[in-house]
């Protein structure tokens, strides 16, 4: 399937916060109740539509465990968007956000769009981080913010799509040189400047199905 643009995303955050579950909910509309520890990096993809244009999201789901941190760092480069995830029921995952941002600042391009996600908002009775704290942190660091649940699917679509909308608007504003793929953006048919080979979707390792 052809696309106007392809955006690369990375999902980061502590182990167990629900990164893989958010991806699975977005690509397959399923929830995995068991913690299937990610080893290294996994991959998912899905089509969305923004401004009537087909956009392909190519998503790298990284392992949160400390021992994989150096592998994760090698995926920041070439990402247009990042979902930085914490678990609203575990304060330490919120406390570690600054160190994740530090990694992003060092290894990602300066125009990467970062969406902060307070996940597991279905577990309100076990909440350890207030919504206001999440909002405040996001505001201080120039991030977009949403609370979400990979279990109920609340705000999952919204988080991925809002991130893409922000990237799309940055492209319209001329923030990126889209011919330079190191920004994590590829132009296909109907995008800005369609290249001679642009637009063909040759990906075969797609985890999720396509929608819309
Ligand atoms: N109640 C609830 N549980 C969730 C939610 N998201 C994830 N979980 C559970 O949290 C655990 C960890 O989820 P994963 O998605 O595997 O976590 P991860 O961030 O990918 O962890 P690593 O791969 O080790 O970095 C699993 O048991 C999930 O079922 C959610 O929104 N609500
Ligand atoms: Mg995982």
Explain what you see.
The structure is a single chain. This protein is an alpha/beta fold. Helices cover 28% and strands 23% of the residues. The protein is built from 6 helices and 7 strands. It has helices spanning 19-28, 69-73, 91-95, 97-107, 131-141, 156-172, and strands at 5-12, 41-50, 53-62, 81-87, 113-119, 144-147, 185-187. Strands 1, 2, 3, 4, 5, 6 and 7 form a 7-stranded mixed β-sheet that branches. A hairpin with a 2-residue loop joins strand 2 (41-50) and strand 3. The longest helix is centred in the C-terminal third of the chain and has 17 residues, at 156-172. It is globular. The relative contact order is 0.23. The model is unreliable at 193-212 (pLDDT under 50). This is Ras-related protein RABB1c. Its main location: endoplasmic reticulum. Belongs to the small GTPase superfamily. Rab family. It is a lipid-anchor. It holds the Pfam family Ras.
Task: Give a quick summary of the entry.
Keywords: Golgi apparatus, GTP-binding, Lipoprotein, Membrane, Nucleotide-binding, Prenylation. This protein has helices at 19-28, 69-73, 91-95, 97-107, 131-141, 156-172; strands at residues 5-12, 41-50, 53-62, 81-87, 113-119, 144-147, 185-187.
Could you spell the SSE succession in H and E letters?
EHEEHEHHEHEHE
Query: Rg, please?
Result: 16 Å
How much of the sequence lies in strands comes to: 15-25%
Regions with pLDDT < 50 over 5+ consecutive residues? 193-212
Helical content (DSSP H or I, runs of 4+): 25-40%
Mean pLDDT metric = 90
Tag the structure with descriptive keywords.
single chain; 212 residues; alpha/beta; 6 helices; 7 strands; 28% helix; 23% strand; globular; binds guanosine-5'-triphosphate; binds magnesium ion
